[in-house]
Amino acid sequence: MHTCPVFDWEAAWHAALYGPGGFFARGEKPSSHFRTSPLVGPELGVALVELLSRVDAALGFPPVVDFVDVGAGGGELAFAVRSLASGSLASRLRVTAVELGPPVELPGVRWTSAVPSCVGLLVGHEWLDAIPCPVVTGPSSDPWITRWWPSLADGEQAEVGAPRDAAWAAAVSSVRGAALAIDYGHLISSRRFSLTGYRDGRQVPPVFDGSCDITAHVAMDACAEAAGGDWVLVSQRDAMAALGLVGEAAGSGWDWLESAARAGRIAELRDPSGLGSFGWLLHGNGVAVSDLLPALPPWRPIPASFSAS
């Protein structure tokens, strides 16, 4: 009697993105395939420079302060932070882009393939959703599923988020300061199978031949618990407002046009039915989260009909 081999989803997913000829390994950048917050304009960078400034102050203004962009893609966010920092922060700032694909030459940005130890702020912007996971079909006795996806019904599929949990816990432990994951995802009360692909600005079936980006929603609550410590999970909409990005047109003439354009970009970043619904999972490591953000409403995922990226 012959049995069919079990399909290794995690290995196939990893090979499709990072193996020889994989989507990211061959140099594809997210900017060519979907719109993310760093591509809207400099405003996400402005918000993160403000957050980094608060981390810097909470750390007592160390001689070198780091900004680490994990899963940096084309380096847009890292370069924005490098360009927007000013004064004493700029003179002490070290910017590192972490990416498995080929680096992009950007002034003031160093590249590495592994998460470094750092003092400052580490950001994983749409990084966790690209970490491959096993996929199981219910019923499942997998311990992660038992803890974090208890509603999995017979015949339903689920992504096992344990590799994301481990990656995020390791990233948080590498930082003295703060670590921030910005991503789309779900909570234990709203789990749904979400594995999908993106190519040339369109959502496509997830094929494992290296022709598309493959992604799935992040179990943000599981990642938070895995990393532990002092943390909050809030929406991008609320976090950006707390960091001073609210966006209102003012002035006259060209000044009004520029402020109106900026207000439009901020509105897109804070749109509760789009990018504004992304979760911001912020961990303090040697820094109190309450020194970085005020008390904000807890994050709630967007309805299941929304397709991220």
Automatic annotation (TrEMBL):
InterPro entries recorded for this chain? NDUFAF7, NDUFAF7_sf, SAM-dependent_MTases_sf
What keywords tag this UniProt record?
Methyltransferase, Transferase
The name this protein goes by in its record: SAM-dependent methyltransferase, MidA family
